[in-house]
Amino acid sequence: MRKQRTGKQKGWSFEDLKSGFEQFYKLHKRYPTSRETDNFEFLPTSRSIQRRFGGLVETRKVLNLKSSSDFRTGEYSSQRAKKINERAHKLEKEVYDYLINIFGIEFVHREFFFTDDRRTRTDFFIYCKNGDFSVDVFYPSDKHNFIGCLNSKMHTYASETMLQYPVIFLQMNNDINQEEIENILKRKKNKLLKYQSVMNLKEFKKFCSQKTPLEKT
Length: 217
Hints:
- By secondary structure, the protein is an alpha/beta fold.
- The chain has helices at residues 14-28, 34-38, 46-53, 56-62, 74-103, 143-156, 178-187, 201-209, and strands at 108-113, 121-126, 133-138, 167-171, 196-199.
- The protein has 2 domains: 14-72, no CATH class; 81-209, 3-Layer(aba) Sandwich (Trna Endonuclease, Chain: A, domain 1).
- It has 8 helices and 5 strands; from the N terminus they run αααααβββαβαβα.
- The chain has a 5-stranded mixed sheet with strand order 1-2-3-4-5, sandwiched between helices.
- The chain starts with 13 loop residues before the first helix and ends in an 8-residue tail after the last helix.
């Protein structure tokens, strides 16, 4: 749906932009990223800002806004990276605890390396009676980000070495359900390879319930 234009009848002005940025700041205590401007009704799209005003970074500088530097660098970038790393650790721990409860700690390898080069790795490798498999955990912020993450992972796991065993790309955003995942996969031009699957946590638990754990020695 096309965003409704606010502000002057003849188009967005710098005054309109400043007002929109200030309204966003009041709500979130920071200024928006390019994706967030697309979804904020009091600002034009990031593409419009790029075309008419030279982009977000330049616009923030012209408007003399606080923290006007590029959000990809500096303090914002560091805080964002820290938050992402903390979330990744928490989610991997949640998956690890679930897996060892089902299959046993002896049969769940965390950060498993397929070769000695220490680059071809997966988050988890699980040994079980009816077929070993690997799991790569990720958290997409939205459906658009989900596609980008998935394309990257499909490329990483494309080699024969990585596809010796089935791999499950386990997406942990509860706002993206399995039906939405399947619809995205149907529309994708580059399809999943033979041993690649994408699941949310609910579907993954259903998959694991059909597996038979190895007996402890």
